[in-house]
Amino acid sequence: MNVLESNTCIQDAFNLAWKAAYVHFGLADKSVLDTYSTERQPVGKAIITRANQAFRDHSNVWEAQGTLTKTLSDRKAVWEKLSSDTKKGEVRHKAFRKAITSASHEFHALCIEMGQCYSDDVIHTADESEKYSFSGRGAEDDILYYEPYTYPGCRLPHVWLNTSIPGHSYVLNREA
Prior knowledge:
The protein has one domain. The protein is elongated, with a radius of gyration of 23 Å. Helix content is about 55%, strand content about 0%. The protein contains 7 helices and 2 strands, in the order αααααααββ. The protein has a two-stranded antiparallel ribbon with strand order 1-2. The protein has about 180 residues and is mainly alpha-helical. The longest helix is centred in the N-terminal third of the chain and has 30 residues.
């Protein structure tokens, strides 16, 4: 669910690759490799938690539209209620709308995908006035609302950089 698992694999590979390259070229101590688990395991846990919730959200949608009933005639009866202008139809329709709203996190969960902020000992935060915490809409819902931050350990906002050759843009971390 959320396609987060494949994105997480790419993020994990990138995280490990730059650390291995820095160690290989003598730019970092081997201890930087130990940060992989402490950084990525909380991300993996959040992704799995979100994916499991997405399955639960979908089961509410399926239930509200009658997909989980045992027989075709039961499914047809649910659809009749769902499309009718009766009190039962209104109740069924309200449950369906509520389920759809809950499931919408699956399609708009940008912060769970982009909002990681690492806090290992290798992240220099000594000169920061306060510890990192979500703010703005990210504090309101740390699954949906991604807000770019430049706090040490947070993902840098995506920015295209210009070159002297028009049409040849590049991203800062592509070569990592």
